[in-house]
Structure formats: C-alpha cells, structure tokens
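Q: What structure does this chain adopt?
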Amino acid sequence: MLSRLRKVTFFGSLLVLVFLLSLLLYLAQNSRWQPRILFFRNAGFASDLSLARSRLAGEKRFLPAQGFLELDVELLLNELILGPTDHEHERILPKDIRVKSIIERDFVVFVDLSKEILFSRTDIDLDEMIESIGNTLFFNFPRIREIHVFVEGQIPGKRYAEGVQYSRSILE
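A:
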C-alpha cells in the first residue's frame, strides 16, 4: 500500500513539474511575439489610385521578433506576400515574388524585390503595391525614416527615375 502511494506521489509530482516547465517555456517564447499590422486591399474597391488611402485596410498578425530590424522587415514582407487571412481583403502582392534583400542604414530601408512584381497578372498596379509596402513598414516600424524599393537591384521603370522612395511626409 505504501509503495503504491509513493508511485502515485512520484508520478503526480513529475506531472506537475512537466506542466510548470511547459508553462514557463510557453510564457518565455510567447513574450517574443509582436503584433504587426499588414495592409491589404479591401474587396470591392476600385483600382483608382486617388482612392488608395481609403481602400487599404489593416490586418493584425502576431509575428516572432527576430532581433534585428532587417530580419523583422523581411519577415513582415514575406507575410504580406502570403496574402490576407480575412476574406474581405484581397492579395496586394503577387504570391510568386521574393524578397531578395533588405538593407537598413541609419533607419533608411532598402528593399530589393524579384522581377515577378513587374509581370504579375493582376489589376493592381505597381504604385498600389509599393504603397502597401510603405504603409505596412512605416506603421509597424516607426523608427524607419525612408524606404527605397528596387526590383532586381534596379529602379523599376522610367516613371521612377530617382528610385521608388517613400518617406513619412509622403504618406501622411
């Protein structure tokens, strides 16, 4: 009888210890998740660029903090490429593009995307795609001063002769 009581006590204590350890690990890991807002197109809005501010809607996600601004920006852009989870929002970036590189110097971020952004077969133009990238990055990382977007390391098109640049004053 005493032997059985010892076994029950031992396994009960072991179960409580495992539970406490898993709770501790959960709380330690969960503290590194950051809420982020991604901007997608509202379903049903026209593609007139003059309505760009009113047709983009935010979607909240929790992403793990990477520890460096460049890695956090890359993860956020990859989530933007994955598309929305809300059925009332539409994908704004083509799913086949890749983030080639992210460079940050003195809170100026340089984003290099793959060429698929130029050849996507959607009704969304490049201006709206870049505006979504700018809104998403500026909203989630207030310390960023400017964003420069490149495609395959080049300036995307004649219209952007000086590069695609967004600063806070442009989006406010």
